[in-house]
Write a structure and sequence with these properties.
This protein has 334 residues and is of the alpha/beta class. Helix content is 37%, strand content 13%.
């Protein structure tokens, strides 16, 4: 389902940020207009989408954030807001009053949390994050982006128990932004990430917390026993890699944030959501012809051949192409 950016502004400067270059190239006043919100609601509804995912930057910085959410819910969209949870006291108070009577299924938050023990910035943010978690606890599913091999999930488990959050964690693997500098998990460290995650498995079992792996994880790096654990105790584990589709406040579109500089278009170039997906899925397939996956073995892997694994994040492939002569299909250099 597409993600709609309400604003390019953010309250954080995370070292792994997928969107840093995208936001730095945009106007600080670049916020979505009411006209564009209405257009997108019509566009997604015509394509059969009933979920409206809101991103930023930090989407709650939009001056009309509360009213726009209420409008979309009135249109019978299920609204998902991806947020840092860092809001001013007045915005938090207004949002709490406006959303209090809404059904649980109408509005949900995915709160991307950072470990307060890892940086002074994250520690300083903690009081405001906790105020948000306390206010909207049962509507919130925590999310965590992994960019270090020695990460901990203990603080998230504490948040879940203390504030009554949904008993799940969305885990994202940080990926390179081709041509840019950001912290991300290198290919040689993926095994360490998986090993570190399963050190938390007994705790997650005891607390009945379901982890969900986001896109980009290669299936071949998991043992059969680890996959069986996910089937028994875990949530969703995604081994695909395809166009998510992000839509900016200016109505520009791109496949996903790691590829925000790759074949950026205008939504007005497409007649439908299906046409947009076909376009970006086609580009992904052309890249996969040039390089099947993130490992050489991906080219002949049965898991990839049978469609059980995409071969890791396509951003790794595009980053590799930058360091070789321009000899591939021109689409990969878009």
């Amino acid at each position: 389902m597409p993600n709609v950016l309400f604003t390019q502004r953010c309250v954080r400067s995370c070292p792994y940020c997928f969107a840093r270059k995208h936001m730095s190239d945009s106007s600080p006043d670049d916020i979505i207009s009411w006209e564009n919100v209405i257009y997108l609601a019509d566009f997604l509804e015509a394509g059969g989408e009933r979920v409206f995912s809101i991103l930023g930057g930090e989407p709650t910085l939009h001056p009309d954030f509360v009213d726009m959410v209420l409008y979309l819910i009135e249109r019978r969209f299920h609204v998902r807001v991806f947020t840092s949870g860092i809001m001013s006291e007045s915005k938090l108070r207004d949002a709490s009053a406006a959303f209090a009577a809404l059904p649980q299924e109408a509005l949900a938050f995915i709160c991307n949390v950072n470990d307060p023990g890892r940086s002074e910035q994250s520690a300083a943010e903690l009081p405001r994050v906790e105020a948000f978690l306390a206010e909207f606890g049962s509507r919130i599913a925590p999310g965590f982006n992994i960019y270090q091999t020695d990460f901990s999930l203990d603080f998230i488990c504490h948040h879940i128990n203390r504030f009554g959050l949904k008993r799940s964690i969305r885990l994202g693997l940080t990926h390179p932004i081709p041509g840019q500098q950001n912290l991300f998990i290198s290919l040689k460290d993926i095994d360490l990430i998986i090993k570190r995650f399963f050190e938390h498995a007994p705790l997650l079992e005891r607390l009945h917390i379901r982890p969900g792996m986001d896109c980009g994880f290669p299936l071949c790096r998991f043992t059969n026993e680890q996959i069986a654990w996910f089937m028994r105790y875990g949530g969703e584990c995604r081994f695909g890699c395809g166009a998510v589709i992000d839509i900016g406040p200016d109505m520009s579109v791109w496949p996903c944030f790691p590829l925000s500089a790759f074949d950026k278009r205008s939504i007005f170039e497409f007649n439908s959501l299906a046409e947009m997906r076909t376009h970006y899925d086609g580009l992904t397939k052309k890249i996969r012809v040039e390089q099947g996956g993130i490992y050489l073995a991906c080219d002949t892997c049965g898991l990839r051949r049978d469609g059980n694994c995409a071969g890791g994040c396509v951003a790794h492939a595009l980053e590799a192409f930058r360091h070789e002569p321009n000899v591939r299909a021109q689409e990969v250099y878009a």
